[in-house]
Amino acid sequence: MITGRKQSTTALRTLLHFESPKPVPRKGPTLSAYTTRYPLSLSINSKSVCSTTTGTNSKTLLTVAAAIEYTTSLSLSSAGLRFTAMPSATAKPIVIREVWTENLEFEFLLIRSAITHFPFISMDTEFPGVIIHSIAGERPPKHRTSLNHYFLLKANVDIMKLIQLGLTLTDSDGNLPDFGTASRYIWQFNFKDFDVSSDPHVHSSVDLLRRQGIDFEKNREIGVEAMRFGELLMSSGLVCSDSVSWVTFHSGYDFGYLLKILTRQRLPAQLRDFMVLMRVFFGRVYDVKYLIRFCNSLYGGLDQVASALGMDRVVGKSHQAGSDSLLTWGVFQRIRDVFFNKLGPEKHSGQVLRGPDHCLSNAPDHLPKQMHVTT
Questions:
Q1: d(Cα 49, Cα 79) in Å, to the nearest integer?
Q2: Quick check: pTM over 0.85?
């Protein structure tokens, strides 16, 4: 396990340039095996590397697991990595980096190295639908309060599991990290926890995701464990930071599932506590579904709003989290520049649970006793 910032030049070059390491009598995937399946060539400044590795054992050989295991000590930016912000006219192709259990730690290493330069996090999730739709005795859904929105969110998230999460990291101009390569990158995490044969789900939702290309059997076999994902997310620089902003579309459930993973608990019984956790973990949040309320003629789902704005999906398919996270950023950037070009959308940040009351601080603390379940 890595215990300090200093790494040997040979070892760091092995990690970043993927030079063939010598055999290591250690369990787990080797770098050469990993990079054959997940190629990524990174540019590094040799002088900078040498200046950070003086006095370190030059015989240190790293496997992916050893090099990245829970390390906040390996700073790629301080090792001389280049980040290139490409103007749209000469944009490089965008690649969705599929994340499985074998490359999870390496991908978080890349994310940690990029977040300082690309502090806007656009996020989308895929989950097994909504099986609890209403609370006994409540008014019609169009009059549903923020409190009841939360009650239903909690009831569903507590009993179901996340399937996929997409992340797009950008700067304020919409540039994506390229790590000095010929492509730009976004991420798609595939989780193994959901078992379609036994876990609660809406059949139509699962069928839709399957048609859009999600392989539930593959996820179960080689997907990411939510608990390990949560551990790495805590040290990634994405959460508990005042330096980042989150961009989402209709995000109550997205953040609900993330909070469940991060806290390893059911969601809080009280709405106030949920909002406290939101502020602690995610800070500034922009929900595009809420922002379009202040944009003339914009309404509907993500694809409908994007179409109204004249935007096309750049990569991937709808109902795949990586592609949707990128489209969410594109829509946010467009409405920010067109509809909020003077004042900015900041005064409308933080709205992830919407109701006609918009008064989260005055919401009562108790949960309703009865809810209606639909499958």
A1: 5
A2: no
